[in-house]
Design brief:
With 298 residues, the protein is α+β, with helices and mostly antiparallel strands. It folds into two domains: 161 residues, Fructose-1,6-Bisphosphatase, subunit A, domain 1 (Fructose-1,6-Bisphosphatase, Chain A, domain 1); 121 residues, D-Maltodextrin-Binding Protein, domain 2. The chain contains eight helices and twelve strands. α1 packs antiparallel against α2 and α5 crosses α8. The termini are far apart.
Amino acid sequence: MSIEQLLVELRRLSWGAADILRAYGSGQQPPYGFPSALSVEDGGDGPVSAADLAVNQWLLEGLAASFPSAGWILLSEETAKQQLTPGHPLDTEWLWILDPLDGTKDFLQGTGEYAVHLALAHGGNPVLGVVMLPEMEQLWMGLLAADGTGSAWCENRAGDIVPVSFSHRRACPELVLVASRNHRDARLEQLLEALGLGETRAIGSVGGKVATILRGETDLYISLSGRSAPKDWDMAAPDAVLRAAGGCFTHADGRPLRYNTGDVRQAGCLIASHGPSHAELCSKTAEAMAVIDPDFAL
């Protein structure tokens, strides 16, 4: 298949997923024949479960039908328990990693800060990423070459292109952090104090956070594993788009994120940034974490 053929189908699936989620989120009849959500009181699982399952089906069936002879495997958050055996990577060179609804709490709360993630990994490395932000009508796409170069852009529903626009902030005291509302602990607060960053903004969904970096509204995002760690489907698509745009997404020791390793947890201290200050951020973070939690594995 050609890249353009693949992108055409990804656009169709992404905008379709956006329509499905917005319908469930507003209590309207979902398109494409999907059933209305039953409330928990009525014996159903509620709009979130219905939306997850509908978008999951839409993406999996769409990719399978459009590319029936492709030699890839499709993995989603909704199918992971059935597909994965801990410690054993899936036996494939090409793997789709999908998250039908990233930012469930924000979807429930009506903040609009949720996303759909699609990522294609080759040999454990992301080569294509799609982050759909339904409420903002933004479709972020990124393509990575084997040498690490790439291209990334944003589209609206009409196909108009908006380029990536990283900020010009460089010094740590002026960098704007995008953080989670729901996943913060004392260690992260200590780390942020040690880094001496500027303003902090709270946004739901990893895809939504990275999009703020791509739009130049913020400059970095830090994930510090606590009782749980983000999973491959949380990180793969935002990782691919940000790296394709020329930004960075690594562990605090500089290691790139890898996928389909036999462990879907993306544990440790992960830093996503617009790039110019990344090495300094990693160095300062490693130094600070050695004091805050000496046994923490970056």
